[in-house]
Amino acid sequence: MANDPLHFKKMVDEVILISELDPDLAENLRWVNSQANQNNISFYQMIFYILHRNKKNIHLLD
Length: 62
Description:
By secondary structure, the protein is mostly helical. The chain has one domain. It contains 3 helices and no strands. It has helices at 5-18, 23-38, 43-61. The chain is globular and about 30 Å long. The protein starts with a helix and ends with a helix.
């Protein structure tokens, strides 16, 4: 399940739905979308990239 792209997409979709109730989250997701557009990648790819990059940074702190 951890490597299931459909599972990842569903989780991101849930965050998008939650953002309807959270203006700060919605603003951040709009920023992610603009970054994805600038880099010619999908919104989901951008989310994955951000999460992957942050995971690496967290490991550097250990």
